[in-house]
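re: that chain from earlier
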Amino acid sequence: MDIKQLRFLIALDETRHFGQAAARCHITQPTLSMRLRNLEEELELPLVVRGQRFEGFTAPGERVLAWARSVLAAYDGLHAEAAACRGHLVGTLRLGVVPLSSFDPVPLLTGLHAEHPQLRFELSALSAEQILEHLASNRIDLGVSFLEQLDNDRFEALPLCETRMGLLYDERHFDFGEQPLSWEAVAALPLGMLTNSMQFRQSIDHAFGSRGLAPQPLLQTDAVHQLLQAVHGGLCCAIMPLDGGLEALTEHLRLQPLDQGSNLASLGLIMRRSAPRSALAEACFAFCQRGFEE
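^ sequence. v structure.
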């Protein structure tokens, strides 16, 4: 067994396709299949359900996959730790961010990259539940998510900015002047919203419900880009983070503040407390702490 076989196994899980996994690993598909069969023979376990295409992992395969992730995280962490001891940060920082968090990760990544040019970044959009799951299983190094009901024994958190809400619209189809909008006025508009399972939607529902309002969304979706497309096309307006920079995506989008439009849950940068905790995660966390203190 070698570390490459574990990388092949994880690539297959992430792509769910033999050809795509091989391309990601820069090898041929026959080579990928052969190396995975070698791993199965060594472990004396069937790991992959094979048909004419990839059909999933066996039950033992799922358990081996979890171990493979832990081994690779430890392997990469060891190299990052050794580099940190030499005064350098190398490797890939894996950051998960909840959709519509109002946190722009680009300044953070830009600052880190300026101090540590060898750093690379992997940015994922994940739900609040997925961020905690991925942190616990060491699939990401840091998460930006809401701090409501966070288990402080398992996770360390750095509070970030408050998420304020505004109404996103296309000025070719709507005009609201310059004053903050009331929730009563917004409730009467054609609205596009994220689905009920999203944390951001729950704050919107609370804001309406606490005022005795029950708007009926014209559109509901779990994809932010589809919501933006609908707003840009004039189908609806959407309640979005006020400081997310979404209005800059096209020249016609505008973002109007909402009166008393704060998100229920505070936002934070989250890191797991238990080992193995990567040097990259700790360096990024400390970088953010310094930024807030300055």
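The chain has a mean pLDDT of 86.
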